[in-house]
Amino acid sequence: MLLQAPPAPARALDGTRPGPRGGRGGRPDEHLARLTSAPALLVGLVVVTLLAAGPLQGMDEAAHGHWARELTPGLQPFIQHVLDPIAGQAVCLPVLAVVAATLSWRHRTWRPLWCAAMAELAFYGGVGLLKVVLARPAPTTDDADLFDGGLRQLGWSGISFPSGHAAEAVLIYGTAVYLVGRWTNASARTMSLLRLAVGLVALNAAAVSYYLGWHWISDLVGGLLVGGLLLRLLVEADRRGWRWRSRRAVVARHL
Predict the structure, then answer these.
(1) Domain of residue 183, residue span
(2) 34 pLDDT tier (thresholds 50, 70, 90)
(3) Would residue 143 count as lying in a domain?
(4) Would 169 disulfide with which of 32, 87, 143, 248, CB 3.0-4.6 Å?
(5) 12 within some domain
């Protein structure tokens, strides 16, 4: 397939297009970009991980409960089997695959599919690796200490931090929205609605996991942060790839 450039200048991850002289549109967008930059998200993840290793454990244990079973037992099946899977692989991965495949076919390029594959690889290689290394037991064990669990010792209940569902909600759905913004002429309003949808899905993933009693609070915060960090790194890698190909194409035309 031929590699074609996107139909419009690439939006920033927050949806804004580059302004004059390479700047962004407005001051609120600049603040948002800084708060959700890779360095800021990395610092946040490190801080939350360190706090989860000790200072936050008392809060995690005090705030934990099987709230769905205790408060709304009649709604638990709906929460568990309808709301919770929205951020799971069975739902979010097909959504990303359809978006990427459609854009790849329309523009006759593998680039969106490559980006989708990298997002999935980042999830397993980034979030999965952190889970295995940190080996935090799930709340079902009544033990919030890092390194006390492990896949071999406790199975899936031994790798609770960071939350995979929270990370997927940001990374996988966020990648789909990024691809729409980069490869279509979607309006600013449409992009704002799509970003809002990703935020709501991420909030749903965290709230549902907590309400069902499946994660400590710090697991969920860590999941959101690592999902955002991996998304930022993926977007930057994709943009660098385009800049490199653009420079190579310019050089080739002058040979």
Answers:
(1) 87-242
(2) confident
(3) yes
(4) 87
(5) no
